[in-house]
Design brief:
By secondary structure, the chain is mainly alpha-helical. It contains 11 helices and 4 strands, in the order ββααααααββααααα. Helix 1 packs across helix 10. The longest helix is centred in the middle third of the chain and has 28 residues.
Amino acid sequence: MDVYLPIANLSVNGLLIVALGGLTGILSGLFGVGGGFLTTPLLIFYGIPPTVAAASAATQVTGASVSGVLAHSRRGGVDYRLGSVAVGGGIFGAMIGALLFRVLQAVGQIDVVINVLYVVLLGAIGSLMLREALSALRPREGATQQVRKRRHHPLVAALPMRWRFYRSGLYISPLAPFILGVLVGILTMLMGVGGGFILVPAMLYILGMSGNVVVGTSLFQILFVTMATTMVHALTTKAVDIVLAGLLLLGSVLGAQFGTQIALKARPEILRLVLAAIVLAVALRMLFGLGVQPDEIYTVAPL
């Protein structure tokens, strides 16, 4: 089933795009990430211009996050107060990202910047995930694991003002989740990612959040920031392909249901190991792509 993408100006296999959206949905249900960090590179590999891929992927990340937020909300796994602060920062960051996007687009460097950002971030995140997964799988002879109480980073403790975030068990400055939201918003705008692959570790190891609300709160922030990002892209960069976004959205909503079911049965260490391998493979493929001449030397720019 071939469909025509008006903004990207090419025909693609619609079923393949739906399947790609389904993969993103599965990742969302499994790990609490939007999945855009894999969707955008895979769309680029398929021949879709990076600007269109990044702008359109944010839309389906929204769809993949909806069902996840609802599921976690039913079990009390969303800190709406902290999430709302992060959403505010994310929307502000999306505006900053829009300005950067337009500047880079005007000088003809946006495609290169998107690819380089993916290589750096995916390489770093994939390496950390791989090390953590292998460490968790390695048997610890004669060692008794001690459960440590999570504490926020010293830099977070130094920030002024403090609020109580009861669901997360935190008493910290709201500036910490706001700044974190700003950074994620910028990345969402530039790369078409939900930011969960950065947000989840940051909430755990920088903010010191309780583990039972991290995934749900991350998805809550991703949901609203990707909605705002899509609107900003549609109004400013004009790079959102509605047909592509619709196909991805259909697949992601269906895939999220399967991901949630798999997460209930599979070992978390094995899942992290598989995800780390996928992330590193994509990073290496993008690094290779930066070193070879593309088939089509052009970029998509608004008229």
